[in-house]
Amino acid sequence: MSKKFDVLWTGGWDSTFRVIQLLLQGVDVKPHYICDPGRDSTTFEISAMHQIRNQLKNNPKVKGNLLPVNIVKFSDFEKYKDIEEAYIDLMKQHYLGEQYKWIADYCRHKNIESIDLSIVSVNSDHFFQQNYARKDYPFSVIFKNLNFPLINMSKNDMREWCVDNGFLPVIESSWFCHSPTRSGKPCGTCSPCIVAMAEGMGYRLPTKAKVRYHFRILPRLKNFLKNHPRFYVYLFKLK
């Protein structure tokens, strides 16, 4: 019987790479997708997952099975007080996106022992590399069921691997922008668009998005929050 891996799949570059990587190893992949109420990209991400699934379906190199994706809404699973408290305590030390709290909640609610998150190496922030395996509080609460198999890879490492193994067209069917324009194009100012530019993948953004990238304002506010995590904790408690 093939081993099964739970993977948080967003239809994006990194998580799509992890899905492909596991399938080539002969592993069955159970994808999970949590609809983020703060994003406008849900339909684009789900569409990308359908397209990628179709591309992988008859590929002779794929040895594992891509199981049906479990799509859940934010309201579909319980939120736990101790996880929220741990998230707040962690945030006093370092900015961490609220989605990690949701994923910890989701894993407990669904009794998922380990789920792969496709967080990659980013030159400007080594937080995950330094802390994801810690067993002390509050890290032990938030990261208990989260696995980071790509933590030492970059997007360009993945691109080279996909070129070598013939999967570049598949991974380039992924979607990455959190705030697509009305015409369905990447915005150039959200976090994934900024990372794409910084990682040398600006070719995936249209010209207008690249212009917006150079004149962005909101992402700089996010950088301020990252540098002042206690202020973010204050804002979080006001919700």
- Largest sheet, strands/sense/barrel: 5 strands, parallel
Which band does the percent of strand residues land in? 5-15%
Please give the number of β-strands: 5
Radius of gyration using CA atoms only: 18 Å
Query: Which consecutive residue ranges, at least 5 long each, have pLDDT under 50?
Result: none
* Name of the top-level CATH class of the largest domain: Alpha Beta
User: Which architecture name of the largest domain does CATH use?
Assistant: 3-Layer(aba) Sandwich
What CATH calls the topology of the largest domain is Rossmann fold
| Euclidean distance between termini CA atoms | 46 Å
Shape: globular
Structural class: alpha/beta
CATH level 4 superfamily of the largest domain: HUPs
The averaged pLDDT comes out at 90
The main sheet orders its strands as 3-2-1-4-5
Oligomer: single chain
Helical stretch tally: 12
Q: Helical amount among residues, as a percent range?
A: 40-55%
Q: Please tell me the total number of domains.
A: 2
H/E series, N to C? EHEHEHHEHHEHHHHHH
